[in-house]
Amino acid sequence: MHLTAAAAAFLLVAGVGAAAAEDVIIQPEQETVIREYVKKQPLASVKLPGVELNIGTALPDTVELHEVPNVKYRYVVIDNRTVVVDPGTRKIIKVIE
Fold it and tell me: What is this structure's pTM?
């Protein structure tokens, strides 16, 4: 019985660690570069009915992602909010108000 509880606890902790490893953290310097670039290169806002702008939400392939020089992430403006996206997964990693 103790072995089962220990195994369950291990799997729970391992799962939390795996989930945390997926989190992408934008460094403050990168966020500043993105904010400044977006101000200088404004995009028209697009509408995505039915898509919630939450961290981790994957954007459809129909959404064009735009490059920020010297930053590996991309951005798009959706519903007048700048959304930073991981281009490999197309998942939202930051919503800048």
Answer: 0.73
